[in-house]
Structures are given as C-alpha cells and as structure tokens.
Amino acid sequence: MCRWLAYFGSPIRLEEMLVKRDRSLIDQSLHARQGATTTNGDGFGVGWYEEGEIPRVYRSTHPAWNDRNLRELAAGISSPLFLAHIRASTGTAIQETNTHPFRFGRWLWMHNGLIRDFQRVKRELVLAIDDSLFPNIEGTTDSEVMFYLALTFGLEDEPVGAVERMVGFVEEIGRKHGVELPIQMTVAATDGGSIWSFRYSSEGDSRSLYFSTRMDDLKALHPELVELGAFSDETRVIVSEPLGDLPGAWNEVPEAHVGIVQPGEDELRPFAPRR
Amino acid sequence: MCRWLAYFGSPIRLEEMLVKRDRSLIDQSLHARQGATTTNGDGFGVGWYEEGEIPRVYRSTHPAWNDRNLRELAAGISSPLFLAHIRASTGTAIQETNTHPFRFGRWLWMHNGLIRDFQRVKRELVLAIDDSLFPNIEGTTDSEVMFYLALTFGLEDEPVGAVERMVGFVEEIGRKHGVELPIQMTVAATDGGSIWSFRYSSEGDSRSLYFSTRMDDLKALHPELVELGAFSDETRVIVSEPLGDLPGAWNEVPEAHVGIVQPGEDELRPFAPRR
Amino acid sequence: MCRWLAYFGSPIRLEEMLVKRDRSLIDQSLHARQGATTTNGDGFGVGWYEEGEIPRVYRSTHPAWNDRNLRELAAGISSPLFLAHIRASTGTAIQETNTHPFRFGRWLWMHNGLIRDFQRVKRELVLAIDDSLFPNIEGTTDSEVMFYLALTFGLEDEPVGAVERMVGFVEEIGRKHGVELPIQMTVAATDGGSIWSFRYSSEGDSRSLYFSTRMDDLKALHPELVELGAFSDETRVIVSEPLGDLPGAWNEVPEAHVGIVQPGEDELRPFAPRR
Amino acid sequence: MCRWLAYFGSPIRLEEMLVKRDRSLIDQSLHARQGATTTNGDGFGVGWYEEGEIPRVYRSTHPAWNDRNLRELAAGISSPLFLAHIRASTGTAIQETNTHPFRFGRWLWMHNGLIRDFQRVKRELVLAIDDSLFPNIEGTTDSEVMFYLALTFGLEDEPVGAVERMVGFVEEIGRKHGVELPIQMTVAATDGGSIWSFRYSSEGDSRSLYFSTRMDDLKALHPELVELGAFSDETRVIVSEPLGDLPGAWNEVPEAHVGIVQPGEDELRPFAPRR
User: Fold this and answer.
1) Which residues of A touch D73 (CB under 8 A)?
2) H-assigned helices in A112-156
3) How far is C-alpha D221 from the chain's CA centre?
4) What does the alpha-carbon distance between residue B82 and residue B190 come to, in Å, rounded to a whole number?
5) Does the structure show a pLDDT above 90 at D35?
6) Confidence (pLDDT) at B36
C-alpha cells in the first residue's frame, strides 16, 4: 500500500505539501492513518513540471522520512503542478525503477493499490502493451504495467476512456485466470495541464482518496486563515489521506469516480471499466 | 529508538533469530511493540563471530524489512555468537558508519537509547576519548562515543567497571551542562567469548530488555517443543523485546542491572555508575 | 562491459580471489586491463554455494572498490564454488535486480557482453520465455533474458545444447530485425556441481576469457610456490582477465568454445549456435 | 583525488556544465585527464543558490555517471552560482556526509587534495575548532575539518585571511607530528555572492586549477560562437580541469594563488599560509 499527493495551482515550494503540513506526505511515510499499512518506507518519488518542459522526476529507495536530498529539493524547487508518492511494496523489488511516478513523454502516472495475483497475469498483460511502448518499461511493478496499458489504450488522446479500457482489460484477464477481484486502485495521471484522479476497485471498496475544497469556498469558510491567500482560486490538492483536519477542507472522491482538475471548471464523473 | 538482539549458544543460521520467528528482528523493524517508536527503519546491522576470527559486520542503511542482501546473508551464515540491531535514528545521519554494531578489534558494541542533548556535550565527551582510539571513530552517533569512552575506561580488561565509569562520566558531563537525565541505554558488548548486557537510565526507567530462560529449564517446561532440542543448554538470547510469547521463555532484565552470558554459569548483577 | 570470475575447488575465503590478488576482481573494478572499459563501477555481485544448499547471492549497486560490506563478507564466507561479477552497464538501470549473478533454483548465471539493439528485439525475445519462468524475471537486462531463454531451452537438462539454442535464437531474431552481429558474450553458468563457461560472439571476436592451469601441473611448474599447496588438484578458476602474471598459469578459452569444470576430468569443446 | 567546478554568472541549467560539455564533470567522473586518479566514482555533490535563499545541496554516494537523479536535477534546476564536486576517496567512508560541498549557513566549501597523515593529526585539528561550530561536523573527512577550521579562523569576515590561517595551522600541526608536506589543496568557498578559489600545497606543486577567460574577451576572440551570447560578461567558471579545448578559453590559476570571482572586477592574488 502506498500514499500519494497531486498538486495543481499557484506555484509553491514542494516542501509546503511534502514536509511542512501536520500530516505531510513525509509524516504519512511513518504514520499513515487510513492506509492498509501504517509504514510507507519502501521509497519515495516526486515528479514536477515547469513551464513548457517535460516533467522532472526524483526517485529514491530510501524512506521519505530519512532522505535528506528530498528535504533539500523540496525546499529548493517550486512548481505549479506536481505528483508525489510514498511506497509500501506489495512484493516487487525496492529499486528506483519501481518507484512512482512513472514518466512517458509529458505524462506522469502514480498508483496506490494492486493488480491481484499479478505474477499469474503479468505475462498476458505485458503482451498487450504496444510494441513501440514496450522498450520503455524499466521496472517490474503492476503499476507501471497499468500505465503502459493505459497508454496503449489511448491515454494521451482520451484519458478517461483509456483508463476505463485498461481497467476493463485487467479485470477480463484476471477473471480468465480465476482472480475474483482483479484490481484495486487510486491513480493520478497528468500531462502537465490537467490531472485525472481515479478511484476504483473490483470489489467496490477502494482505497481512500480526497480532493481539497475549491480555494475560493475555503477562503470564504475560513476568512481567519490568511495563509490561504497564497493560493490561487484554482488551486486543488488530491490526496490519499487529508493533510490536516481543517473543517470543510477535504472531500472524499466517491467510489468508482474520476476527478479532473484542469484550467477552468473541474469535473467529477462516474468511472466504469470498459471492454 | 532501536531494537537489538544478542545470541550466544549452538551455532545457528542467523535467519533463525532475524527472520523466522513470529516477532523476529525483521518483524520488529516494521512493528515494534514495546519501543518508543513502532518503526525502526533507519538501517540495520549484524556482527557475527566464527572460531578464532575477528568478528565480521554487515551494515545497511536500508530498512531491515526490505533489504534482500540481509535475507541472503541470514540464510547463508551460521554463528555461535552474534549481535543484530535495527535503528531508529534520534537525529544523526543515516549512514553505514552510524549503524550498529560498532567494532574495535575483537569487540562489538550496540546500543538502544540516547545521550540527551548530545550536541551540547559531544565535544567534551569526545575529548575524553583516548588519543590512540580517537582515529577509529567513523560515525557521528552518541552510541559510538559511548563505545570509545568505555574502551578508554578499560572495557577490554574490566567490562562492567568500564561501562560503569563511562556512564558515570556521561552523567557528570551532562549535569555540568544542565542536562538533568543525561543517559538512557540498553547496551550489549561482547569480545566473542561472553556477552555483557546493560540496562540503565538516569531516570531509573530504562528501555525494555529481556533474556531467555536457561535452555534446560525451558526444555523441561515445554517437553512438547521438539525444536528446542536443536539448542545447547548454554544457549541464551538477549533482546529488546521477546521474539514470541512462549510462557516461561522470557525474563526482564531488572532496572540498573547487567547480565553476563558466558561459558559456565551466567550472572545477573546490579549496575551503578561510578566516578 | 563487465568482468567476472568463477571458482571451483578447495573451499576458500572469497577474499582470496576477490580482494587479495594483485589483479583481484576488486582491482579490476577500477583498472581493468583487457576490457572495453577500464572502469567497472556499476555494481557488484557474488553467488556462492555451501553443501546441499541453494546458492546465496549478495548484490550491490555500489562500485566494488568502495563497498565495505563486500570486504566483510569476502573475509567471512568460505565456499568451494562461487561466481563473482563486476558490472559496467551498457545502458540498463543500475539496480540490484540488474546485477549478476542471476539465480533460478540451484542455478547461477552471469554474463559479460551484450545483445546488440536489445530494445529492438527485447519484446520478441521475452515472448519466447516459458510461461512458468516468466514471473521470475526481476530486472531489465539482456543478460537475464539470455538466462531465462537458456532455461526455456533446457539449461537444467542439457546445458551446452540449451545455450547453443539460446544463442541461435538470439541471432535469428536479431537478424530478422536487421542486426548484423546480434550477440557478444562470455557466460558462466553453474548448478553448484559443475561450471560451464562459454565464449562466443556473432563477429567471431569475443571478449577475453581465461582458465587456470590444472593445479597439479601448476604445482609441478612452480614447486617454489608453497601457497599453491592450499589448493586441491581439481581447483580451477575461470576469469575475464588473469588475476596475475604467473607464467604458465593462465590459458585463453579459444573463440567459440565452452569449458566445463566438473568433478573428474574437465572438458573444452567447440561451441556453435543451433536452430 | 577529486574534481570540482564552480559557476558564477547568468543563471543556467546545471546540466550545461555538469552534463552537456564534452568534458563535463560527469565525463570527468569516469575519465579525468589531469588528476591523480582517472576515476572519480566515490560520490557526487552539487550546491546551488537562488536569490535570497540559503544554498540547497544534493549529495549522492553513487558515481556521478550512473546517478539518474543527478541528471534529472541538473536538467530541472537553474542557478546563477553553484559548486559541484565528484569524489575519489582518499580513505574515509563513502557516505553523503563525506560528500562535498559542505554547507554552513550561507556558505559552501569544497576541496580537492588531502591533509597528509590525517589520522595522526586529526584529533589536534578537531580540538581547534570553535565550540559553537563543533556540533555541526557531520562527516569524517579532512576537507570538512578544513572548512570548520577556516570558519573558526574567520572565513565569514575575511575569507582569504581565514584560509591562510587555516593552512598555516594545518602545516604547523602536521610538522609538529613529523609530516613534511602537510597539505595539498584546491578549494572553492562561496557565500553566494562571491567565489574564492585557492590553489596551494606544502610542496609547491598543487593539483590543477583553471579559470575561464572573461566572457567579453572570449566573445571577441570567438565571434563565430553564437552560443557564447547566452552568457553575461561577468560569467566565470573555475574548474579542476578544462571543460573543453577552445583556444584562449582556459587559464591556469598560478601556484599559491587565490582567485576571487565577484560582482565587478575579479581578482587574482598570491596566497601564503599565516601563523
């Protein structure tokens, strides 16, 4: 099990989300409250965008709580859109290439959950990945296979549909191999312009996922919090678990839904696997 | 806070104590039950003896639970006497040279606890280390400074007295700098022939420490446990917390005591700092 | 490019071959003389056997020359049969799962060389790996794919034939994709009883490979070297480059040959890819 | 032996100096031309400034040539002033706290060379470090001790004088212990506003050090090189060895001199140890 965070909004130092909150992602690496495991110490990764650039990624196999470079970078780097992830391995090796977020071109992808009985279905899933994409696979996780399947199914052109097809395919192959509940996931995907956040599981009981309240509403709710002034009205954070307990600040993504954070109005829509 | 284990007895694969028990040291790295912290993920070390050799040490900065090399070595190495330690840093850097056990000649040393306000008293403590020993210091922990102070005060000749003088000195220097409760410790020291295990703290409320029951008594108590036959009557294990809940198997080291595991009769004696 | 060493004979401390020779494997990590690169600093691995056990493997992503744990283990572990490898990556990630030797059951495998244009042919090669073996692949190197192809083609039953079929297959697929000279290799494979050492390349100009002279002949040649008495007559070492310059001690494996070191008479035979 | 680079000028991506040149610092980690060792694979560090901030530092124990995070950061981070260092250990442990540059407040420090017989003189040197600075020492290198001695002797107020006193003191203590040629160094120190670069050794035969030609002169010399237009006239690079072989671009720092790169006119002055 893992924890993740996606940020969209006014450019901020990464440390504002990763280090400085009461329940920052670094804190969650040692003391997750809502996860299947309390310790997420099997590596850390962050991917961030700057204007007009492909995203940069820093990944480490050390626990986030004791990685000094992470604190340095989080203090030194500002970005208007970044994804960060702390890992608790479900069995695959602890190595940078198994650490989220994964990158392809302008896209980043990260995942909390698992493909059940992955070793049994891996071969068939991997075979469905497009020829031209295949050589880009660097690690051995189910999460990266999901990413390349989504790319194969059109992630770059139609993100929601592609992820729906990926999930449908994983469920089909899993069931063919006798796996009753093939997939459990919260996923964030981004092209640097929008963020798509998915919450879904075959059993209809997915890992937790929250999005922050619209910043203008939150400012109206808490006029006393002057520090909120630093965030633009479009700022939005999506997280595995809330970064604090400010009343009205956090909203659960409903089961089997996808949230789209984008310039202009954000969206929240039902999500259903497709075949 | 940390957890540690010292083994003395019939030669066994390290994995018997580090991996295979219900509450093995690796399990404790993720789920300590009695410690100040539940996660001990800031590194791992093991030192082991073979006949007539100086001890060998394997140390890693990765969490014990996800270190593959540790599992390989624990399966491949047998020893009649070994010390193992999982670390939860109290602030000093995560690096192999800060990972226990520390070695000097034939001696190994490991520690759970801390010297309070170490940064304030460090210089004065370090200055008291013998000139000839000084260049051997490789890391930056309070634990290593305690080891070299104990060596300075005669650890090799009179182990209990030397540790009593070391603790007395640390308390004196601490109090001189206004630190009310200067030291908290459980320590294991060994020369490959005997193991000295110390439990002491300035506040009289030391970290937990247990020793296993004499193996012949334990066999008499549990004749149904045929696997105990593999252990010689002299086998003894000292641990920060019990490796299981077998009734009658584990005994607390009393506050301010030192236990000596050695060929022949073992000993348990009061321990008092000296000046 | 990489360097490797395989040892068969009287049980010795690993350090005798890895550390203590003038041109030990650790020395070669910094100063290879005959390789395509002088520095082999992209990781290190050693696999060793003890009686009746599956082999144990220690792998590190640090350069061999500065890995302290390696020196400790090499001093602490004795074995009658071991493989050791220092890596210079030809492009794939620096991670333990890409570090040789690779293990499957009782088998170990290590490789110096490359499959040319590996990214172009990888998919087709991977697809040929047996279903039941597929989930065991942990890394992303050409060397590991070669191992699992050899296992698919019967390595455990008929080692030479299986490697000949593996090479034939790699050449066929490579040429189908327009790669003129698909493979370059020296390989060591062992089941803990014998060691098979292959030297082959599509261009007929393979990386260097040497085997040591029969120990009884070498003792006769150098009666003044009393230290040779420590080695049984059956002792044999196979290396990418000689560990020293003792006259008469080292013999080149001929181009396109396989050497078999085994109890009883050793063998040296021509090697030819098969389809 | 090590190699280092200091950059002062128009803000640029770190990769321009660390990755993209023919003889970039990463290239030098594998193939140094002028150093005492050709391989500088014992770690890497870079410290960089942004406006009004304390410097940030990224340090790794992996060889620079195979560190992926380094390439990501070098591509993602821009700075008008940065120091970068590749390490070849002269004996002390490979750990992040022994990796340059070292930081204290707004200051960074890096070093190529050594204090001879450091273990013999270490205690006496360390004792001379100011009480208030002592707890900041994190590693075990001679280079860090030189930094804290220089700080003790007034680096923040009078940089050249402080380094002259530090060197004088190291030479005095060394000679007292019978070390004929106590110090060999090229050092860069910066407060984020200016860079001081020192070249000195007791034997009068110091490690190589170069500074780039004034950018306006270089542009006049090579009007055909349009890419030079990207650099302000004040841009200056100081390096252990030239990043290329552009005629007129690189000038050796004379033996026993200090160069000061600063806003306005730069300076080059004789350097002499003081007592």
Assistant:
1) 56, 58, 73
2) 118-127, 142-152
3) 28
4) 9
5) no
6) 61
User: Are D69 and A60 an interchain contact pair (Cβ–Cβ within 8 Å)?
Assistant: yes
DSSP symbols for D121-173: HHHHHHHTS-TTTGGG--S--HHHHHHHHHHHTTTTT-HHHHHHHHHHHHHHH
Chain A residue numbers with beta carbons less than 8 Å from the beta carbon of C96 are: 93, 95
Tell me the chain C residues in contact with residue D65 when contact means C-beta distances shorter than 8 Å. Answer: 41
Intra-chain end-to-end CA distance of chain A, in Å: 27
**d(CA B209, nearest CA chain D) in Å:** 31
Q: Suggest the residue from A94, A95, A125 to mutate for an interface test with chain C (most C CBs closer than 10 A).
A: A95
Residues D7 and D17: beta-carbon distance below 8 Å: yes
d(CA D205, CA B7): 55
Q: Would you call D48 and A96 a contact, using CB atoms and an 8 Å cutoff?
A: no
User: Alpha helices, DSSP H only, in chain C?
Assistant: 15-18, 25-31, 68-76, 118-127, 142-152, 159-176, 215-221
- The C-alpha atoms of residue A99 and residue A60 are separated, in whole angstroms, by 7
d(C-alpha A237, C-alpha A8), whole Å: 6
Exposed/middle/buried for D274, CB within 10 Å: 0-12, 13-18, 19+? middle
Q: Token pair of C144, please?
A: 């590991």
Contacting B with CB below 8 Å, chain C residues are: 48, 50, 53, 56-60, 68-69, 72-73, 75-77, 96
- How many CA atoms lie less than 13 Å away from B256 in the CB half-sphere? 12
Please determine, for residue C187, whether its predicted confidence score (pLDDT) is greater than 70.
yes
| Alpha carbon separation from D3 to B151, D192, D225, D261 (Å, rounded) | 39, 20, 27, 19
**B10 neighbors B235 (Cβ within 8 angstroms):** yes
For A140, name the nearest residue in chain C, comparing CA atoms only.
C138
- Which tokens is B43 given? 């590194």
Residue B166 token pair: 């070391």
Count of residues in chain D: 275
Cα separation, B143 vs B123, whole angstroms: 14
pTM of structure: 0.92
In this complex, which of D38, D42, D66 lies closest to C66 when CB atoms are compared? D42
Distance from CA of C59 to the nearest CA of B (A): 7
* Whether pLDDT at C49 is above 90: yes
> What ipTM was estimated for this complex?
0.88
Chain B residues with at least one Cβ partner in A under 8 Å: 30, 38-39, 41-42, 61-63, 65-66, 68, 89, 93-94
Model confidence at A1, in pLDDT bands (50, 70, 90)?
low
Residues from D in contact with B at Cβ < 8 Å: 93, 95-97, 119-120, 122-123, 126-127, 131, 134-135, 137-140
Would the CB atoms of A123 and C137 count as touching at under 8 Å?
no
Token couple for C192: 């803990």
Name the 3-class secondary structure at B142. Answer: helix
Residue B233 CB coordination number (10 Å): 13
Chain D positions touching B140 (Cβ under 8 A) are: 97, 137-139
